[in-house]
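Shape matters. Shown next:

___
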Amino acid sequence: MAHFLKSDGILPVKGYDSVNLPSGLYGKVKALVKNRTDLGYRSVTEFVAEAVRKRTEEIERINTLTLQLEEKVSNSAAKK
């Protein structure tokens, strides 16, 4: 893994990797974190990590349901 200085001059934290976000999206998230402290996010990183975690969990649930449905359809067709 290559290590580069981020634009703020800080090296990435050990155990973390970085991703690039479009500037507009980053700005929206940064403003949301700053202006909506009631949501409980302390940083853009925390917000993005939770968003990615939730989306990957959703995709995993969809994959599981799809496999279960395909199995039921296959079993139903085999019984005919």
Helices lie at 23-35, 44-79. DSSP finds two helices and no strands in the chain. Confidence is low (pLDDT under 50) at residues 1-5. Residues 12 and 18 are 7 Å apart (CA to CA).
